[in-house]
Amino acid sequence: MQYEIKAPQVLNQTIKLPASKSISNRALIIHALSGGAILPNNLSDCDDTTVIIDALQNNPHEINIKAAGTAMRFMTAFLSVKDGEEHVLTGTERMKHRPIGVLVDALRHLGADIKYAGEEGFPPLRIKGRKLEGGLLEVPGNISSQYISALLMIGPTLKNGLTLRLTGDVISRPYIDLTLWTMREFGADADWSDFETISVTPKPYKERNYYIENDWSAASYWYEMMALSTHEDDEIRLEGLMDGSKQGDSSVRYIFSLLGVKSTFESREEGVPTTVTLRHTNRCVPRLEYDFVNSPDLAQTFVVCCALKNVHFHFTGLSTLKIKETDRIEAMKKEMRKLGYVIHDKNNSELIWDGERCMPEIEGGIDTYEDHRMALSFAPASLCIDGLSINNPQVVTKSYTHFWEDIKSAGFEVIND
Question: Of 48, 234, 297, 406, which residue is the catalytic one?
Answer without folding.
Answer: 297
